[in-house]
Amino acid sequence: MTEIKDKSVETFLDELASRQATPGGGSAAAVMGAQGAALVSMVCNLTIGKPKYAEVEADLRVLLAEAEDLRAVLVGMIKADVDVFGKLMACYALPKANDEEKAHRSAQIQTVLREATEVPLACAKACAKAMALSRVAAEKGNLGVISDAGVAVMAAYAGLKSAALNVAINAAGLKDREFAEAKLAELQALMQNADSEAEEIYRIVKAKL
Amino acid sequence: MTEIKDKSVETFLDELASRQATPGGGSAAAVMGAQGAALVSMVCNLTIGKPKYAEVEADLRVLLAEAEDLRAVLVGMIKADVDVFGKLMACYALPKANDEEKAHRSAQIQTVLREATEVPLACAKACAKAMALSRVAAEKGNLGVISDAGVAVMAAYAGLKSAALNVAINAAGLKDREFAEAKLAELQALMQNADSEAEEIYRIVKAKL
Fold first, then answer.
1. ipTM of the complex
2. Could you tell me the domains of chain A?
């Protein structure tokens, strides 16, 4: 089967809109995060090598490498979301005619739900990282393309808030409450200042327009 | 030349990240808005026909039609942004060796800057519309996919905030201040309650998880 990243943008959107269960919000979150990382790279690529920005060039080379690594991770997460959702659906489809089958099905669901909690949590972390990188782009990037740093932060922020919803749903289904609460605490730490952070980076950009 | 919508998601991201001037934040904004509209459609498609949701089915059929129309508009805007940016770059490249050339170049830039203000403003309006549609999806959609309504609002909101930056940049370059101020006033009206509106729709979803 063709991976989503290899499908056209329009086909991705068609499939997102369709009654197919995947791709859904989890893949959309990863795509938004990847757009954020890509736009950080764009700002770097259009700043590096310009004499006017020689002073920040070394910083932006580091930023570019980080943004490109992060983009690769986020692109991988488009598929990771589809895969874990497919696994979860397969578990729900397991037979439950007797107690033995019910117990097996329930155990399988619990195993995959752990993964289905960790996948969007990893996406949320990557999006939070993309937000942090967009701040550097907003502070040091070429003023001629600084608006792209503002788009980067909004894309990454939307990806973070989106992934957070999927962490919350899947964690809610976990019977292992210790594991679930630990994951929700990690998420909480990521979300704590996300709203004000996004607003602040966006303002840095707006002030430079 | 292949339109962005017909390129793979990964190629789109590669080009976004590259030192090419387009696609940039304007196209990313349109893609985010289109993701928002697509996810509203997904919620509708996974609600319509379910006996449990028979009461809202008529409303969601209307919502689906609106979301699909809007998605088509937003997909068109991916290209519109690239096209107007290309036109603007062509104007800046016009010769300016003498006063006549300078006057011609300046007039051409001003003409295209009007369009370059209106294109992202139209994108901002479409994203604001996508936010409004996501509220209906959040309020009436199938609880099993309600998180997708939350992703929809965040995608549309990020698209709106992103497009707004491009309106602001291009309006700033306009000599016709009456036109510029009128466009900025339209933008201001769209942005007025956007932050609280996004937060509220997101909360509606979170409360249902």
1. 0.97
2. 21-207 (1.20.120.680)
